[in-house]
Design a protein that fits this description.
It comes from Thermanaerovibrio acidaminovorans (strain ATCC 49978 / DSM 6589 / Su883). It contains 14 helices and twelve strands. It is an alpha/beta fold and 319 residues long. It has two domains: 144 residues, HAD superfamily/HAD-like (Rossmann fold, 3-Layer(aba) Sandwich), CATH 3.40.50.1000; 104 residues, Rossmann fold, CATH 3.40.50. Helix 3 runs parallel beside helix 5, helix 4 packs parallel to helix 8 and helix 11 crosses helix 14. It is globular, with a radius of gyration of 22 Å.
């Protein structure tokens, strides 16, 4: 079943990237003794806080953290549904990867204990710095899998995973830990990994993250109607900001004709990227829009596009 934009479904993603601990394997990891010993019991981002430590304290902390991870790895078990989900992906030739904040030694020990294989594309914190939620390791994993970030689904169980996925422009799926305050960051939230396997077999169209609040306010049918609209972007005050506002209101297509970015355009829209000078406006605007709205198209031409300003008046006044 094909799904037309602005809807999506993970069954149509070209690759999957998973967090490791808590998503594919599970074990007894308790970081509270380290927090008590080094950070006065504060719940902090351990790896990021370690960067601020001076030597030799930093090295001692990282060694203790690795020892803790490795000791817990020997007791790891597969998360229910993990092996079936991996088999599902591999039987369909869908590439997958693992990106984790764990150390490589602990991941390999957990893989042996739980009998969950690590894929060829596996990135630990030893392989890539800084770790997620920095998007760089996720973007690198997508390149190694031979796919574009917006074509990937990233599956995690923690807010760092969702933040990393959002920053990498990937579809982000939350499983196993449905914390209420994390849900707005996810494209899809499921109670268990086995639920994800069930969803892959039932490709009902889903509203992606970037349109979720809009769909709740105007309805999915109106979202679908808006998305097929093509707007004309003209060099007038606020044109760059207006294009983003139109995209947030559901516009799925933009035409910029043959405009090239020149210095005068910054007086009209100062938030335009500095590196845009001398480049086609459509190319620059399309790249910027797709950072947040990956389904949006920028077209070379279109019969009778609606001026962005007219579109905004219509939609912001309930038309």
């Amino acid at each position: 079943m094909m799904i037309d934009p602005p809807f999506w479904h993970p069954a149509h993603c070209s690759a999957f990237i998973f967090d490791w601990d808590g998503v594919l394997v599970d074990g007894p990891l308790d970081f509270s003794p380290l927090r008590d010993r080094y950070f006065g019991g504060r719940r902090v981002m351990l790896l990021e806080e370690a960067e601020r430590m001076e030597e030799p304290l930093r090295s001692r902390f990282l060694a203790d953290l690795e020892d803790l991870e490795v000791s817990g790895a020997s007791s790891c078990v597969p998360v229910d549904g993990a092996l079936d989900l991996i088999a599902h992906l591999e039987s369909r030739g869908i590439p997958w990867a693992v990106v984790s904040r764990n150390c490589r030694r602990a991941m390999e020990a957990a893989s042996l204990a739980a009998r969950v294989p690590l894929p060829e594309v596996t990135l630990s914190r030893d392989d890539f710095h800084p770790p997620k939620p920095d998007p760089a390791p996720l973007l690198h994993a997508a390149r190694l899998l031979g796919t574009q970030p917006h074509e990937c689904a990233f599956v995690g169980d923690f807010v760092y995973d969702l933040l990393g996925g959002r920053r990498a422009r990937m579809r982000s799926i939350l499983v196993n830990r449905l914390e209420e305050k994390w849900l707005p960051l996810a494209d899809l939230s499921l109670p268990t990994l086995r639920d994800l396997l069930a969803v892959l077999g039932d490709p009902t169209p889903l509203v992606p993250w970037e349109y979720s609040s809009l769909a709740r306010s105007v309805g999915e049918e109106e979202l679908k109607r808006r998305f097929v609209t093509v707007a004309l972007v003209e060099a007038r005050p606020g044109f760059w900001e207006d294009a983003f506002l139109a995209a947030s209101l559901g516009c799925g297509g933009f035409v910029t004709l043959d405009l090239e970015v020149d210095a005068s355009m910054w007086a009209l829209s100062p938030s335009m990227p500095v590196g845009a000078l001398g480049r086609p406006l459509g190319e620059v605007l399309g790249a910027a829009l797709r950072e947040t709205f990956p389904l949006v198209r920028v077209l070379d031409d279109w019969p009778d596009p609606v001026p962005v300003t007219d579109l905004l008046v219509r939609w912001t006044h309930g038309g």
